[in-house]
Structures are given as structure tokens and as C-alpha cells.
Automatic annotation (TrEMBL):
Organism of origin: Methyloraptor flagellatus
PANTHER family, A to Z: FLAVIN-BINDING MONOOXYGENASE-LIKE PROTEIN (AFU_ORTHOLOGUE AFUA_4G09220), FLAVIN-CONTAINING MONOOXYGENASE
Protein name as annotated: MSMEG_0569 family flavin-dependent oxidoreductase
Organism lineage: Bacteria, Pseudomonadati, Pseudomonadota, Alphaproteobacteria, Hyphomicrobiales
GO molecular function, one term: monooxygenase activity
Sorted UniProt keywords: Oxidoreductase
InterPro entries to which the protein is assigned, alphabetical: Auxin_biosynth/cation_transpt (IPR050982), CHP04046_FMN-dependent (IPR024000), FAD/NAD-bd_sf (IPR036188)
Domain of life, per lineage: Bacteria
Amino acid sequence: MSSAQTSALKTATANRTAPEHVSVAVIGGGQAGLSISHFLKTRGIDHVVFEKETAMHAWRTQRWDNFCLVTPNWQCQLPGHPYDGPDPHGFMKRDEIVAYLDAFRAKVAPPILEGVAVLRVTPREDGAFVVATTVGTTIADQVVVTSGGYHQPIIPRLAERLPGHVAQLHSEQYRNPQALPDGAVLVVGSGQSGAQIAEDLHLAGREVHLAVGDAPRCARFYRGRDVVAWLHDMGYYDMPVEKHPLREGVRDNTNHYVTGRDGGRDIDLRRFALEGMRLYGLLDGADGAVLRFKDTLTAALDEADRVYNGINAAIDKWIAEQGIEAPPASVYTPVWQPDAPSPTLDLDAAGIGSIIWCIGFRPDFSWLDAPVFNGAGHPKHHRGVTGTPGVYFLGLPWLHTWGSGRFSGVARDAAHIADRIVERMQAATNLSAAE
């Protein structure tokens, strides 16, 4: 990057105006956006990061008070910023995560425009892109979308018909049990957020009803180690999506539920049931204050346990093949079985004062005017490189490997995208010289 380009970028970001031109526009100021900024800076490529809120906004505002990582701290490997704290095998809490990310931002010192929303990105005939923002328009030679895929909270339409005196919130709005109205709580969804929020409420002594989905689960520790450590040694986290048995279908999978809370442990919904939590199948509809559920609970719990035991069996196989000394193998056996299914739940009769919807998010890339999406609105790409030259995605789940959307794998993906950006720049320079 020339001194003139550097000066122009500094002036633009200081004045919160969109620069007239940059080689690369980065859309999103989370860990993915700052990771690609790191590699673009080391390669001397001028760029600007547009962030509609503040850097790492989601980590500051969309996590509950007792939130913690579900992967061990040693897996935090942002570029040039590995975890170096005192507890590599522990699980950082929300405020510790924010501090880790703040330190990463300080190291990167990205050219970032915060509080600036991108309204539209439109390709030009010459191969560049018009990036329209709330503070002006930038012409970018290439664009990297790092805004993630969790944009629009999913709340079912039936929520509109439920009694107004029952408080409703999405998982991103949940903070702690004390902030909820009095009464029992219905949690809908048992993925990572739903299972952990249900646990948070349960440990606080709240009466919890949980509508269980099809999320799998895994052990926290097995045969003397964190399961993540075993899977790391087995090469699971280096497996590209093309070699996964489900191929690209794995991107649609719900994450396994487990927790890093209090040093880490399993989440066993059956044990919660023994302790008083009420479990139901998938939510199927509502008639006033009466909710209906499908008869899916037994099958969902059995499938989650099958996955749990399957992961452990794969670890057993690895230990045997490598001749590793380890504590003996074990198989999980259910500690509780559902009785006859509970097809309905009367919110008023059960004293339920609040519902927390934990059923995920929808992507919203409507601002990107480029033919890079499938019929479901998800980006089509190979390792983040789309079919439209100069448009890239970074930070999505299973973009390349399991860690692509996490602190553990985004650096590898960002370096790959930066290399592709350099290649396109060099090709354009060579073409110009030939002409």
C-alpha cells in the first residue's frame, strides 16, 4: 500500500466517510473481518472494513451473562493472536472473550468504519464493485463478506397468536433468569443456545419446560481428556467439507450441545428431566394459550445419545489403533425415559410467564447484488471463493472445515482468501501490462 493510499484511508476512517476507492472492501467487523484485515495488511493491500455496529458487536450484546465457550481456550487461534492466558484447557467466559477480542483488534489496528451500514454492493461491467453505504459510496476492486450467517432471528408466526401477558424473547435477547418475569419458562429449541439457556435457568431454580429439537450431543470429557482434544489429534478439525460424509450438507447441521460452564461438563437432558425439567417434542402449533407438540421426544433423545456414543466409539478406535494408554471405555445408558408423550401444554395452567425462542437465525444477504446464492439464499462457494470474480465469503460454518466459523479455523481461511485476492490483483496487473 502506498503512503498516499494509507493517508487517504486514515483520513476517510477518521472522518467516518467512505473512501473513494479501495482494493478490497470487507463487510463486517467481527473476528472474520479483522482476520482478513490482518492478512491484507501484512500483504500491503489497501482495504476498509465496514461495520454497521461496533467491532465484535455480537460478542458484546448477544450473549447471556453466564455465556462461555464450548471449545477449550487453546483452540482460540486468531491470526497472530493465540490464546496465551493461564487456563488453556478452560473455557473463557463472555467478558474474557470480549477482552481477548479487544486485544486482537488492538494488534490488527484495522482501517474500520464503525456505525456504517452497507446498503448495496453492485458489480460494474469493468469487474469492480459499487459499495453504497450510509456515509457515501466506495468503489472496491474486490469484496469480502464477513458478516456471518446469523442475521434475522427466527421466531415462528404462531408466536403472534400467543397470549400477550406471556413475555417472548429470542435467545439473542436473553441475559439472565432474574431479568425474566416470574413464573415458569418455556425454552423452544435444544441446540447449543437452547440447551445452555435451559441449563442456566434450571441451575437458577426456575421451573423449565423445554421443547426438544433434533440437535445431537457429545461428551465433554472422555477417557481422561476433553473430547475436543481427542478429535484434534484424530484430524477431525482439519477435514475439509468435501471429505465429510455429508459433504456440503453438514453446513445445515445443528451443533452438538455441550457446555464449558464450571470447567466443562456434559449436558444431559434426561438428567435434567429427573431433576424436574419438563421435556416435550417439536412444537407443532397453538390454540390460544395451549401449545401442541409432536411425538418426537423419545426419538430425539435416542438419536442424540446415538451420536454421543458414536463419537466416543470413534475415539475408542483411535486409542486402540495408536496404542494409547487411557482410562477404560464406556457407553452412555439412558438415566431417564419419557412416559407417554405430552402432546399439549397450557401456558396459563403451567404458570409460564415467558418463552425463549432458541431456533436460530436466517441469513440476509439481500444487499449483495451478485449471482452467488442458491435457492435457499445461502452463498455458493468453494472455500469462500464464489463464481463471481472478486466476491468472497469468510467466517461461515464449514466454509472449509469445522473451525471455519470459529476462532480455531478462521485464520487458515482468511489467509487462503487473501492469497486469492493477491492472485487476482496480479492477474489484473499482468493484463494491464500486456495491453
